[in-house]
Amino acid sequence: MKRTLPLIITFLAGVFVVVTFFIPREPFGSLEQRMLVWASILGGFTLLLGIDSLIKHHGRKLARREKDWFYSLVTLLGLFGTLAAGIVTWAKYGTPLELASLNEVGGFFWVYKWVMVPLQGTMFALLAFFIASAAYRAFRARTFDATLLLIAAILVMIGRLSMGVIPATLVLAVLLVAAGIHRLLIRKPVFGAVLAVAGVGLGALVLAFPQDAIRLAPQVQEWLMSVPQTAARRGILIGVTLGTIAMSIRIILGIERTYISST
Amino acid sequence: MKFIKWLTNIDRRIIFLLMIGAVLVPMLFTIPIPFEVGEPVQNAFNAIDTLKPGSVIMLSVDYDATSYPECQPMIVAITDHAFRKDLRIILLGHIPTGLPLGQEALERGAAEYNQNHKAEYRQAVKHAGEELKRHTAGYQESLKSAAAEFDQEYTPRHQETLDSLVSDYLEKVDSAAVKFQKHTFEYWEAVKYAGEGFNRHAAEYQKRLEGGVREKNSGYVRILERAAAEYDKHVTEYQEDLGHAADQYLKRYGIDFVNLGYRPGVVAIIVGMGREIRDFYHKDYQNINVDSLHMMADVHNYDDIATLVSFAHGTAVESWVAYAGARFGQQIIGGVTGVVAPDLYPYLQSGQLAGLLGGLKGASEYESLIKKKGLASRGMPAQSTAHILVILLIVIGSMAEFALDISKRRGT
Amino acid sequence: MNLPTILGIWIAATLTIAIFSFLYRDNPLYKFAEHLYVGVSAAYWVIFAAKFTMQDMLVSVFADNWQAFLETGSRTGFWEAWILVIPTALGFLMLTRWFGPKVGWLSRWPIAFTIGLGAGLGITGSIQGILLPQVQATILPLWTPDLWVIVANILLFVGVISSIIYFYFSRPHKGLLGGVSRVGITFIMVSFGAAFGYTVMSRVSLLIGRLYFLVYDWIVGTVDFFKSLL
Predict the structure, then answer these.
(1) CA B369 to chain centroid
(2) Are B6 and B100 in the same domain?
(3) Which of A40, B173, B212, C93 has its CA at a distance of 20 to 30 angstroms from the CA of residue C130?
(4) Is residue C100 part of a domain?
(5) Is C229 domain-assigned?
(6) Which chains touch B (3 or more CB pairs under 8 A)?
């Protein structure tokens, strides 16, 4: 019963939505709308789920003075401080999202702009450093596929430049020539010759027609994005969509039950 | 050889320092950069530019502060463009930690628009006020001449009472304007209330003027009543002129833009809004009933929304396209981060997206189209140097590895 | 610039530098900022859940409908008010997860409802919204007056088919299947390279945003603030 009833609910909810897609007439239409509103309300309750384990975990660390208990205190102070800020602004203006609270120390908007935004933004800004370091370490043109990936990446990056297009393209040309020579020396003459000729050709064209190169770089990038990239992306998208459909059918039919046993 | 080996394994902290330098240095100098606009951004611009004034555009905030530098310039630019084209904006969000950013962009955009058109608005209001004063003088004249004709006493007290009635009314309108800058439907309520108050006092004033005269001289009373009705029309005209001036020169909450707030459950809302928006957004972000917002009177679902722009850093645009776009035929534009943009090109090619702004470059292209350089354009030089650094690092690493590989093979 | 703003800018700058200090190595300042972030985000979600779900979708809808019933005796008002008991009850069932598995199994019902709804919408949305339009857009004319369009259409068609075939792992990639998937992986490599180029742009933008804040809002802003005081 504990396991069967949820499966029945899933089946009924899923089938109902699919049936209503084909029969939007009353009473199906308004019933579906009501179900969607309820799903939205449930989503709101779901937002509250994590808070319990957060308070319990950090509260326990603080109470028992475990290692790094000070940071647990910081978390809890941040939590309750922001809750207080939100409640005060909500009581004062009728909504926590009041732009005027930006001019009050401790207002909800003030906390958002000067605590939340820098924390969130800087956490992700660190990625810029890591991507440069990772790109340098991992992206070496060792195989045919890796070389292709690199050339596409560099061409796209050049296409997004607003200055320095010529030097960057020359650097790419140098890479192609170096890769060609490398391949030639390790006994892969065809590939090596192709790369070397491509490199020399690219360098020569860019030096001969610099203005055209600057004009064409974004167009090359746009073409790469809209043709080969779109094709592969679409292939992946269709594959993923077929997988989603299969998974959804499995869930509705009760073949896939992992979401139940997570409690 | 040692140097080449070092080149294949540079300490990451040196790379971090180089990255900081590559971004910081161009930021300290303003470098003018010419712009060529790509097709996806041009299509997005055209989709909004060709909308009729008064059309409704929905902006969905599906990003948060982690994508602030990329998506915020986009929403600022599109808000600016929409206000210039007199489009009406509905703001909502599926990511709560990003909704305040959208709100800030919208309210600041409206405030900036009002600031830019303040002089014209003041001029129009002053003109309307002068018109009213002229008609007030005319009304007083007709009262006086009627009094003279019928030998009634038109004392300075009558004049003062009328003067004070009118100036009282004008003062109420002015102070309402100052007080309700943002919440302009409250302003119009206050203006209407002041107008009704004026009419009430004017009627009482009339009665006092008429006094014991009514029985003695109905002709005089008739003239008074006619003059009063005439004046009433001019007061209404004044209110209408204020309304027109505001329509033309101000962007007001509830009339030109609305913030519906956040509701959880992304797909449920996207599908449900195809039937009726109010089922989910009964009240706006401030607890005002959506039905009392003037702009929302004729907006019920996607049929009433001309274009929808989703600013996203995840899969929100795909949800909008799959549900709002496919099921309800809603036109959708995507304003997304660079990470998500490549995923959306298939939708662009299939026509499911009307336009796409991808990353900082997309935002700066849009800014150049609306001829207003903002955050994105200022960041482009630093972007270019950082890209060049990454390209150089990749190339140096690869070339050093080639050299190392060849020497290894030679050595063995 | 007023006092709350300059104070806020300094707090933001301190937190920004605290997180950037991680680049050198993990340190107490970074840990402080990281833990603060966790606490503030959690509170944020709670406030939003409370305001935009509890108040706006439950309490105020109930209150408005109940008032309509009290004022006009509207049956719709009565019905619309009291039917909200069902989603509220389901919501509280969801929250039984807080109390361990003994009671938490009750949360399976609302979860089943949400997942069933999502799966149903997923089927129709995926087919109508993604699969059919994307396949339709791949069926392109392979002969047009414009050479570039011919090349683009052929590449698109070949690319989509070959990359889908690449992901068919139920048979070994040998022979014709192997050849086609080789073409597919080539297209996929190009797309990954392009995606990488865009990702670099995206990540660097975030850095530009933070450094811009540090230079112009913090340093220049503080100088302006003190200038305005003098």
Answers:
(1) 18
(2) no
(3) A40
(4) no
(5) yes
(6) A, C
Buried b (16+ CB within 10 A) or exposed e, B332-341: bbbbbbbbbb
**A positions 201-240 inside 8 Å of C (CB):** 221, 223-239
Which residues in chain B are contacts of C218 at CB distance < 8 A?
A: none
Residue B79: domain span: 35-89+96-117+254-373
Least confident of A35-39, B63-67, B248-252, C31-35: B248-252
**How does residue B158 score in pLDDT terms, banded at 50, 70 and 90?**
low
Task: Give the model confidence (pLDDT) of B232-243 as tens digits.
Answer: 777 778 778 777
Complex confidence, ipTM:
0.91
Ramachandran angles phi, psi of B253, nearest 5°: -60, 135
Chosen from B277, B367, B383, B395 to mutate, greatest number of chain C CBs within 10 A? B383
- Give the closest-approach CA distance of A170 to chain B in angstroms: 11
**B338 in C contact zone (CB under 8 Å):** yes
B365 and B404, same domain (yes or no) = no
CA distance B3 to A59: 53
Q: Is C151 contained in some domain?
A: yes
CB pairs under 8 A between A and C: 412
- Return d(Cα B13, Cα B397) in angstroms, integer: 16
Nearest residue to B106 via CA among B78, B136, B134: B78
Window 158-177 of C, Cβ < 8 Å to B = none
Chain B nearest-CA distance from A163, in A, is 6
**Residue in C56, C137, C212 closest to B261 by CB:** C56
Backbone angles phi, psi at B88, to 5 degrees: -105, 135
Burial C31-68 (b: 16+ CB within 10 A, else e): bbbbbbbbbbbbbbbbbbbbbbbbbbbbeebbebbbeb
User: Does the structure show a pLDDT above 70 at B211?
Assistant: no
d(CA A110, CA C40): 13
Same-domain status, B167 and B19: no
Which domain, by its residues, includes C152? 140-230
Domain identity same for B57 and B129: no
Tens digit of each residue's pLDDT (9 = 90 or more) over C198-217: 998 899 999 999 999 999 99
Measured in angstroms, the CA of B159 and the nearest CA of chain C are apart by 47
Residues of chain A positioned with their CB less than 8 A from the CB of C21: none
- The percent helix, strand, coil of chain C (3-state, each to 5) is 90, 0, 10
For residue A125, the chain C residues in CB contact (below 8 A) are 19-20, 203, 206-207, 209-210
Does residue B353 share a domain with residue B260?
yes
Q: Which residue of A has its CA nearest to B394?
A: A136
The residue from B207, B230, B249 where one domain ends is B249
pLDDT value, residue A191: 85
What is the Cα–Cα distance from B358 to B40, expressed in whole angstroms? Answer: 9
Contacts of B19 in chain C (CB under 8 A): 207
Instruction: Using DSSP, state whether B366 is helix, strand or coil.
Output: helix
Residue B216's pLDDT is 60
Please state, in angstroms and rounded to a whole number, the distance separating the CA atoms of residues A216 and A208.
Answer: 14
Using the Cβ of B382 and the Cβ atoms of chain C, whether some distance falls under 8 Å is answered with yes
Q: Is the pLDDT of residue A1 over 80?
A: no
Tens digit of each residue's pLDDT (9 = 90 or more) over B267-277: 999 999 999 99
Residues B4 and B55 in one domain: no
Question: Can you give the residue ranges of every domain in chain A?
Answer: 4-47, 52-126, 139-253
Domain count along chain B? 3
Number of structural domains (chain C) is 1
User: For B99-217, where are the alpha helices, taking DSSP H only?
Assistant: 99-116, 118-149, 156-179, 184-210, 213-216
Residue C6 lies in a domain: no
**Confidence check: pLDDT of A100 > 70:** yes
> For chain C, which chains pass the contact test of at least 3 CB pairs under 8 Å?
A, B
Question: Is a pLDDT exceeding 90 seen at residue C131?
Answer: yes
Q: Do A162 and B103 touch (CB under 8 A)?
A: no
Read off the CATH number of the domain in which B46 is found: 3.40.50
